[in-house]
Amino acid sequence: MSTVIDGSAGITTNAGGSVNPSTNVEGINYSCRAWVNFNGTGTVAIRASGNVTSITDNGTGDYTVNFTTAMADTNYCYTMSTEDSSLALINFNATSYPKTTSSIRTTTRYISSLTGSAVVDDADSVCVVIFR
User: Fold this and answer.
1) Interatomic CA distance for residues 50 and 55, integer angstroms
2) Which of 6, 32, 38, 73 is the most buried (most CB within 10 A)?
3) CA 5: distance to chain centroid?
4) HEC readout, the chain
5) How far apart are CA 95 and CA 130, in angstroms?
6) How far is residue 13's CA from residue 80's CA, in Å, rounded to a whole number?
7) Is the Cβ–Cβ distance between 28 and 21 less than 8 Å?
8) How much is the average pLDDT of 106-116?
9) What is the dihedral sign for C-alpha 65, 70, 73, 79?
10) Percentage of the chain with pLDDT > 70?
């Protein structure tokens, strides 16, 4: 027996209350597969995470997020946000590095108020979320 929690979303549970994967394909396919909040300055350090084993510091503003459990393929999506107390505006930008099933490499950038162009730089706080 299953119970419909939200008829518009089609989410159902098993009799014990757990989500029924056979009837909730959308919920499974579109869930967060990994996330991390880390310090991107000095010695890079993870503050909190899920399915992230480590961060590799590849140089100024250039990081690789390594997954604990690999993705099924490279058809996942990700988003990133950054904060930096010393910069008025910090932005995020993926580089042309290809995604892999075991990691994603990305850079943090800010927009220079002098030139208007993007400058790769470290950020005080970097958050990355992976969806598949």
Assistant:
1) 12
2) 38
3) 28
4) CCEEEECCCCEEECCCCCECCCCCHHHHHCCEEEEEEEECCCCCEEEEEECEEEEEEEECCEEEEEECCCCCCCCCEEEEEEECCCCCCEEEECCCCCCCCCEEEEEEEEECCCCCCEEECCCCEEEEEEEC
5) 16
6) 32
7) yes
8) 83
9) negative
10) 70
20-32 pLDDT tens trace: 445 545 555 678 9
Q: What are the phi and psi torsion angles at 114 (to 5°)?
A: -80, -45
DSSP-derived pairing of the beta strands 62-67 and 52-59: antiparallel
Whether the pLDDT of residue 8 is over 50: the answer is no
- Angstrom distance (rounded) from CA 115 to CA 68: 40
Residue range 69-79: average pLDDT?
92
Task: List pLDDT tens digits, range 34-43.
Answer: 999 999 999 9
This prediction has a pTM of 0.74
- 132 Cα distance to chain centroid: 11
pLDDT at 7: 45
The ranges assigned to domains in the chain are 1-30, 32-131
